[in-house]
Amino acid sequence: MTWVLGICSAFLVVAAVLVVVRITRGPTMLDRIVAFDVLVSATICALGLEAAVHQHTHSLPILAALALLGFVSTASVASLTGGRQGVEEEDR
Q: What is the tens place of the pLDDT at every residue in 38-60?
């Protein structure tokens, strides 16, 4: 069980580092928004892993709030940018 926890933790850390790189270097704002959504998902996975390892449910409200944050932020960006031309091109 310990090596499974280590592998899962390593994958989550690598994913978070790569996502932070994408947030800082992303060529467009939409790339950064998608990367932020993936970072929220990685955080949810990390909290879920911690809750499973320690066998408690104290972090369930935090998990629900983060899931709601990820959904609402993605839906609001999609509704604001839907149908506009030139969204891919960032102002320089």
A: 999 999 999 999 999 999 999 99
Hey, what are 70's tokens?
């990820």
Domains of the chain: total: 1
Q: Is residue 48 part of a domain?
A: yes
Q: What is the CA radius of gyration of the chain?
A: 16
Regions of the chain where pLDDT drops below 70: 83-92
Phi, psi of 51 (to 5 degrees): -65, -35
Residue 59, burial from CB neighbour count under 10 angstroms (0-12, 13-18, 19+)? middle
Tally of residues, the chain: 92
Provide the token pair at 49. 């892993």
**Residue 46 belongs to a domain:** yes
Domain span holding position 21 = 2-81
Compute how many other C-beta atoms are within 10 angstroms of the C-beta atom of residue 18: 14
